[in-house]
Predict the structure of Spiroplasmavirus-related protein.
Amino acid sequence: MFLKKNGKQNISAIAKCLNRHRSTILREIKRFKTINEYSAYKSDKMYYEKRKKNNKICNFTEEQINFMKIRLNKYCDSPKEFIYRYFLKFGVKFSVFVKTLYKWICLGFYGFLKQNLRYHGKKFKTKGKKDNRGKLTNFKSIWNLIGKIKGVITDRGKEFSKWREMEIFAETQVYFCDAG
């Protein structure tokens, strides 16, 4: 179906039909020996198997695991504080990032309890509080200026095409700037 004149597969035609780049199609085909063996299910399965091998596995000694359980469960240290204390005790940097440690606590790895975190791991929502970020709070409304405006100077843009209505509404004079 997607063959060139010389009998080879036309990768660019396949890519256009699938709405993907040529290199993506070629990479998927190269995972298998021939194009006839290709299966999206097998390809996806191979991807996850390779991904499992790439994950970094942290190996801790019993002493380190006990220290982690005591600091996080008994003394209720925050993950940042725990990492600092781990460094002081063992003299090596803790092997995972703070965000990963929070993830481990939420998932319950190594017997960590979410209840021992500050605020017990809860996410508090604002209860009807109005958010004023990114909004102007100290400005003068145009409704307060009716009858007080002496004149309006504008450019000759099409947004001011109904300038006579603006004169009547605001009870002022509208003046236009010279072009140039």
User: Anything to note?
Assistant: The chain has a mean pLDDT of 80. Strands lie at 151-154, 173-176.
